[in-house]
Amino acid sequence: MPLTFTLDPAVTPALRDGILDLWTDVSNAGGAVGFVAPVSVEEVRPELVKHFVAMAEGRNRLLVGHDDTGTVAATAFFSFNTHRLMKHWVWLYTVMVHPKHQGQGYGRDLLAAAADAARGFDGIAAIRLGCRGGHGLEKFYGSCGYQEVGRVPAAIRVAPGDDRDDITMLLPLV
Predict the structure, then answer these.
(1) Can you count the helices (H) and strands (E) in the chain?
(2) In angstroms, what is the C-alpha Rg of the chain?
(3) What SS3 class is residue 19?
(4) Is residue 92 within 8 Å of residue 128, measured between CB atoms?
(5) What is the DSSP string of 58-122?
(6) What is the DSSP letter of 135?
(7) How buried is residue 120: exposed, middle or buried, by Cβ count under 10 Å (0-12/13-18/19+)?
(8) pLDDT digit string (tens) for the chain, length 174 residues
(9) What are phi and psi of 171, to 5 degrees?
(10) What CA–CA distance (Å, rounded) separates 170 from 174?
């Protein structure tokens, strides 16, 4: 069953808890979404609150994918630039698909839904995202139309002695 995507869903306790569970599960499965396993819901909560505050202030927007049971299965947050010379592109952050759904094409579906949503944003011509090296994510994003446009070697310290590249990817929308 395909996911059902919603842009700017109402932030309800069920949505909040679903994203917290998703983010925790993805992190604990080794996903590169800002944490290193093991992580708890309580450790993730402050980061989600920051995202919700940015949404309330109009700086971020949320795309969420629900599975056929109504469970949060995927997310991506858009972040708008405030610099007057960079308002023509958005960042895509916290791109996640629940581990139990991976390998079913839902990541591609999420990125396609994100591109469709961004095309509807006034004046947006591209999406940029950052990914952590060492997971092959740049190959996955490349297969979805993104191109690598920057790489900072060893910029992300996952653990002492385990530094990863910070990779910037770009998807032109026009």
Answers:
(1) 4, 7
(2) 15
(3) helix
(4) yes
(5) TSEEEEEEE-TTS-EEEEEEEEE--STTSTTEEEEEEEEE-GGGTTTTHHHHHHHHHHHHHHTST
(6) S
(7) exposed
(8) 899 999 999 999 999 999 999 999 999 999 999 999 999 999 999 999 999 999 999 999 999 999 999 999 999 999 999 999 999 999 999 999 999 999 999 999 999 999 999 999 999 999 999 999 998 999 999 999 999 999 999 999 999 999 999 999 999 998
(9) -120, 105
(10) 12
Distance CA 33, CA 31 (A): 6
pTM for the model stands at: 0.95
Helix or strand or coil: residue 154? strand
Q: Are 93 and 55 in contact (CB under 8 A)?
A: no
Q: Is 173 in a helix, a strand, or coil?
A: coil
Residue with tokens 């109009």: 58
d(CA 68, CA 1): 7
Closest CA to 102 of 79, 61, 77, 135: 135
